[in-house]
Design goal:
about 425 residues; alpha+beta; Beta-Lactamase; Heat Shock Protein 90; six-stranded antiparallel sheet; five-stranded mixed sheet; 15 strands; globular; LuxR family transcriptional regulator; WH-like_DNA-bd_sf; transcription regulation; HATPase_C_sf
């Protein structure tokens, strides 16, 4: 997608890289094309900063100097109505552009005249971006099985990488703090300054982890409120009475792909139910038991719906992509109900037998938790051992299995 869009806008505006940032895609919120030196290094924190600098009204923004890919460079930025961000780095007028020059200072790009900068080219790119951003949201809302499977795999891999990075950095910084706090250290002022810098670095590291979590998870009540918004057109413009049973306000947040899939499944279920004759009321309910998203959608129709109906069969494919279950309960004269269960966590793949690597029972237990994405502290708490002991076992596992990182260790174990 990013590569295609880059080629499409290049005649209007040449650029070294194109970056898309959309929270609609939980598995891969960034989509990039162009210079590897930029695309490999651009961070969500940088994109958040750019989005925060956008003016009200979502007008395009020209910045002669912005940090992107860990370097300061000129960028052109667009913010779609969906909240998705488009960034072009090192923008220059293309062969079909009417760009007559960029503003000398940061500011919005207008279409009032050549002295303001890009004219028709900027407008065309903005319109294209609105279409692309809306298309991204529709694709996610449709939640085809292939997308759900890929999104869950990407989310799980990103979670493991974040856990590995957090463990590595936290261990390094904790060790540094221990050294700096030693009583026999000299240069008190320098030591205190180093402690402050290190503590701030730890805070920033946690902030990165928290931001990643906010991109990949939705509180169950917030996800349900978005569902109400999605179904509002059916209530506003039709004769359908849609009743919502509110979920609990607290509880475990939903993984992004499960929240997206849940809303898509409910929309599909409602459309399948109202396609029957005599349906005037639909009740939507979902809950979270800590391990699963539980969905129930019931109508007041004839009560003869089955899983053989094509629209229901398509829903079953989406549910199966997330290892969930779908059942249809129908009672003649009383209506039909779809009951969907979506597990919040991806199923744990079977691990390779411990005998293949000569692992002890304790090492096998540590390996199972590493493969699940658990951090050292969580493993220590689960097995009632110290974190140093966990690190000792992980080091042995890396040696015995022949892996160089925890992520590789987990992959080999699966």
């Amino acid at each position: 997608m990013a590569a295609s869009l880059s080629e499409l806008v290049r005649p209007l505006l040449t650029h070294s890289a194109l970056v898309i940032f959309t929270e609609d895609c939980t598995g891969r919120p960034q989509k990039k094309a162009g210079d590897d030196g930029i695309t490999d290094r651009v961070s969500i924190a940088e994109l958040d900063t750019l989005r925060g600098s956008m003016p009200e009204g979502s007008a395009p923004l020209w910045l002669p100097g912005a940090t992107i890919g860990s370097e300061v460079r000129p960028v052109a930025v667009w913010l779609a109505a969906t909240g998705a961000l488009l960034v072009l780095t090192d923008p220059e007028p293309g062969p079909e552009s009417e760009w007559a020059g960029a503003p000398a200072r940061p500011g919005t790009v207008s279409e009032d005249g050549p002295e303001s900068g890009p004219a028709r080219s900027i407008a065309v790119i903005g319109q294209l971006w609105e279409l692309v951003a809306a298309g991204i949201r529709r694709q996610v809302a449709a939640a085809p099985p292939a997308y759900l499977f890929d999104s869950r795999a990407a989310s799980a891999e990103r979670a493991r990488v974040i856990a590995d990075l957090t463990d590595a950095h936290a261990t390094t910084l904790e060790s540094l703090l221990a050294v700096l706090r030693a009583r026999d250290a000299s240069a008190e002022a320098a030591r205190q300054n180093a402690i402050d810098v290190t503590a701030k670095a730890m805070v920033r590291l946690r902030a990165v982890s928290d931001r990643d979590r906010s991109l990949s998870e939705e509180p169950v009540a917030q996800a349900f409120e978005r569902l109400r918004d999605d179904l509002r057109p059916l209530v506003r413009f039709g004769d359908l009475d849609v009743q919502f049973i509110e979920p609990p306000l607290n509880g475990r947040a939903l993984p992004g792909e499960v929240a997206h899939a849940g809303r898509a499944i409910v929309r599909g279920a409602v459309l399948a139910l109202i396609d029957q004759e005599g349906v005037g009321r639909v009740r939507v309910q979902w809950d979270c038991d800590g391990s699963n998203l539980l969905i129930r959608v019931r109508d007041d129709g004839p009560g003869d719906l089955t899983t053989d109906v094509p629209s229901v069969s398509r829903l079953a494919g989406r549910v199966a992509a997330l290892s969930g279950s779908l059942e249809v309960e129908a009672t003649a004269g009383w209506g039909s109900e779809m009951v969907v269960t979506l597990p919040l966590d991806a199923p744990v793949a079977a691990l390779a037998p411990a005998a293949e690597w000569g692992l002890s029972p304790r090492e096998q237990g540590v390996l199972e938790l590493v493969a699940s994405g658990a951090r050292n502290r969580a493993i220590a708490e689960a097995l009632l051992i110290s974190e140093n002991t966990v690190k000792f076992h992980v080091a042995n596992l890396l040696r015995k299995v022949g892996a160089s990182t925890r992520a590789e260790l987990a992959s080999l174990a699966r």
